[in-house]
Amino acid sequence: MNALLTEHDGKPLKLTDDAAFLSELRGAYDKDPLFSKVKQNVKQFKNFSLDNDIVYTKNRNGKAVICVPRAVKNKRKLTEKILDETHTLLGHLGTHRTSEYVRTLFWW
Questions:
Q1: What is the pTM (predicted TM-score) of this model?
Q2: Which of 23, 18, 82, 81 has its CA nearest to residue 53?
Q3: What angle do CA 96, 100, 101 make, to 5 degrees?
Q4: How wide is the angle at C-alpha 85 spanned by C-alphas 69 and 80, nearest 5°?
Q5: What is the pLDDT of residues 17-74, one digit of tens each?
Q6: pLDDT tens-digit series, residues 77-105
Q7: Helix axes 95-102, 78-89, angle to 10 degrees
Q8: Domains along the chain?
Q9: Integer Cα distance of 39 and 84 in angstroms
Q10: b/e string for 73-100 if b means 16 or more Cβ within 10 A?
Q11: How far apart are CA 59 and CA 18, in angstroms?
Q12: Which H, E and C letters describe the chain, residue by residue?
């Protein structure tokens, strides 16, 4: 794992604990063609799990990550919110490092 990611590994994004953001995710799943099906019958989708109405999958390292539907809230994609917060958290270290860190927490 990249030293940068290890350094920030213990400093999670606020969004992962933000009740409003998690509520947005839950509502957006129902409108997403894939995730609405996953929520209806998670046992049919071996690569996904459901916990507290949040859909998870495993990243390439085998760690459970939050699935993010393609949804827009207040004219912003949920993915944009995640990228903005990550970019700020990491101290504006560029797209590659931001993307690497995001993949440790989210999947879309």
A1: 0.80
A2: 23
A3: 120
A4: 40
A5: 778 888 999 999 999 999 999 999 999 999 999 999 999 999 988 999 999 999 887 8
A6: 999 989 888 888 777 777 888 888 888 88
A7: 110
A8: 12-107 (1.10.340)
A9: 27
A10: eeeebbbebbbebbbebbeeeeeebbeb
A11: 21
A12: CCHHHHHHCCCCCHHHHCHHHHHHHHHHHCCCHHHHHHHHCHHHCCCCEEECCEEEEECCCCCEEEECCCCEECCEEHHHHHHHHHHHHCCCCCHHHHHHHHCCCEEC
Give me the pLDDT at residue 95, please.
Answer: 82
- Tokens 């919110």 label which residue? 81
Give me 86's structure tokens.
């990550």
